[in-house]
Write a structure and sequence with these properties.
transmembrane helix, transmembrane, four-stranded mixed β-sheet, single chain, membrane, Diaminopimelate Epimerase, Chain A, domain 1, UPF0603 protein, alpha/beta
Length: about 290
């Protein structure tokens, strides 16, 4: 026994027990609760702290409310137009304001790059010479105003709220879905163009070419006609509505009477043949006997 209990002197033995934190033992007489065995899967945590049902349920409730708030915000607060162009409308055109680097707001997305470049060159030259600024706007559909004229007035008042700012400004609106257009402007702009050219442009260039879905031509021809009027040049005119005469499929009275006579002759001949031929065959058969 002494040999077995002998320890070398080089290896000191620490007989003092180690101080370790261990969970208290659960008495065998106390029923084991399911909550003390396993945490809920949806509220599990990697922390080694003792599980607290009240704290975990409160944390889950906070996360749920945060997710619901984000979902509601995304549904009722659409992203800006630059990130989500599908949600763009006539309200965005009004709120954004007049373009700074161009003269065109193509919200409907129907104008080509060539058209926009031509308009910029033509209208910038006009502004440098006559001090008149014209903005062209295309929208797909109007929901806030009954027609393009009221919408054009609303844009002018919103973009240039004072008389001094909007005196030499003009606004041309083209609605692609409704196939209509409107022109409005300040006193100096209207006087420089003239009422006759304004009315003719609105009734000819914009609606006629928009009906044919020639939106680029509608905008460029309108711009050239307005610039010519401001410069005092002859009016180039505008397109006219094409009268498409459809050929009628109904017959006239004379054609009906003629066809009726021919039909009577044909039917009469068929009836004669139907009666005469059998009788002749019967007569020939009887005469042979």
């Amino acid at each position: 026994m002494e040999t077995i209990l002998f320890f070398p002197s080089s290896t000191p033995v620490n007989l003092k027990p180690l101080h370790r934190k261990s969970p208290p033992l659960i008495p065998l007489t106390k029923p084991i609760s399911s909550s003390s065995i396993k945490k809920p899967a949806f509220c599990s945590s990697s922390s080694s702290l003792p599980y607290s049902p009240r704290k975990d349920w409160f944390s889950c409730l906070q996360h749920g409310l945060a997710a619901a708030s984000i979902s509601i915000a995304m549904n009722f607060c659409p992203l800006p137009t630059t990130l989500n162009p599908v949600l763009a409308s006539e309200f965005d055109v009004i709120n954004v304001g007049p373009p700074k680097d161009s003269y065109v707001v193509d919200d409907a997305g129907v104008l080509s790059r060539v058209t926009k470049s031509d308009l910029k060159g033509l209208l910038s030259d006009l502004e440098s010479r006559k001090n008149l600024h014209i903005n062209f706007i295309t929208v797909r559909k109007l929901t806030s105003k009954p027609d393009a004229f009221e919408y054009a007035d609303q844009v002018l008042e919103k973009w240039y709220p004072t008389v001094e700012e909007g005196n030499n400004k003009g606004v041309v609106v083209l609605v692609t879905t409704q196939k209509e257009g409107a022109i409005t402007g300040g006193p100096a702009f209207v006087q420089a163009v003239g009422e006759n050219i304004l009315d003719a442009t609105v009734s000819e260039n914009l609606p006629v070419l928009a009906t044919e879905e020639k939106y680029n031509e509608a905008i460029t021809s309108t711009a050239k006609r307005l610039v010519a009027a401001i410069d005092g040049l002859p009016d180039p005119g505008g397109p006219k509505f094409k009268e498409n005469k459809r050929e009628s499929n109904f017959k006239t009275k004379e054609e009906t009477e003629e066809k009726r006579g021919q039909f009577t002759l044909v039917v009469g001949g068929l009836l004669v043949i139907a009666f005469v031929v059998p009788m002749a065959q019967y007569y020939a058969y009887v005469s042979k006997k």
